[in-house]
Amino acid sequence: MMRNRRFAAVMTAVAMVAGLTACGGSGSAESESTAAAEGGASEAGEASGESGLEDGVLSVAMECSYAPYNWTQQDDSNGALPIKGSSDYAYGYDVMMAKHIADALGVELEIVKSDWDSLVPAVQSGTVDCVIAGQSITSERLQSVDFSEPYYYASVVAVTKADSPYADAKGLSDLAGATVTSQQNTIWYDSCLPQIADADILAAQESAPAMLVALESGRVDLVVTDMPTAQAACVAYPDMVLLDFTGTEDDFEVSEEDINIGISMRKGNTALKESIDSVLSEMTVDDFNEMMDEAISVQPLSN
User: Fold this and answer.
1) What whole-number distance in Å separates Cα of residue 268 and Cα of residue 273?
2) Are 79 and 212 contained in the same domain?
3) Chain segment 223-247, per-residue pLDDT in tens
4) Which residues pair with 112 in a beta bridge?
5) Are 102 and 108 in contact (CB under 8 A)?
6) Phi, psi of 101 (to 5 degrees)
C-alpha cells in the first residue's frame, strides 16, 4: 500500500552545473558550487510542492500516550523523535510510520503532541498537516477530514485480569453482566460495549492508559480495545489476558471502517493524500505487522 514518490530535479542541476562550467574563468568552481546548491534546493522544493508540503516539513499530530501506536519517552532511544515544544521524545508505530513516509517524500518530520479530542480540529485548522494516531476510518470522521488508505488493520478484542471470572471467556456471550469501559470517542466504546449483554457500562476514559488503569485498579471487569493496544497492555501488565473471539460466531460485530486505521488530513488536500497513499501503496499487511511487532517489543515496560 505505500512507497516513495520521487520528485527529482537532478538532471536540471547537472545541466546548470555544466552550463556554468563552460563559462570558465576563475569563478567557475564557485559557480559549480552555487549551481549544485541551487539544484538541491530546487529538488527539495519540487518534492515539497508536489507533496502538498510547501515548507518541506510534515507536521504530524498524535497523543504520544497510546502504546503501541505512540508514546512519550525521555530520550531518543530506538529512534524516538523530539516532541515539538517539549524536552520529551515520541516513539511507537505511528512515529515509525511517520518517519517512513517523511523519508519517502524527502521532507523533514515534526511530531506534535495533542489530546485525542483535539486531533481532528488540529487537522481542520491547519495547525498540523496530518494525524497519525490509530484513528479508524469511520464515515463520521470522513465528514470532517480526508483519510489515506489504511496503514494498519486492527481487530477488536477484550482485555481482562487473569484472575477475573471472565478470563476463560470463549465468546461475547460469556462477557454478559460485566462492568466495562473503554476510551472515549472510539468504536470500542460507542459500538462494541453495547453488544455485551446486560453490561454495566461506566463512563468512557479519556485515553487508552486511563482505560487500562481502570482495569488494573479493579474498577471494571474488562475493557474493549483493538489488538495492538491489547497486546501492548498484556506486555505492560503481566496480570492481564487478551480475549480474542475473531473467527467465531460469537464475536463483536464490526465493519471494515471500524478496523481500518488511517492517516487523516484536511479535506481537499489532494496533493498530500496522493503523496501519502503512494508511499502506503508499496507496503503490505506483513510490513504493517512487522513494524507493529517491533513497536510492541520496544514499548515502555516491555522489557
Assistant:
1) 9
2) no
3) 999 999 999 999 999 999 999 999 9
4) 61
5) yes
6) -70, -45
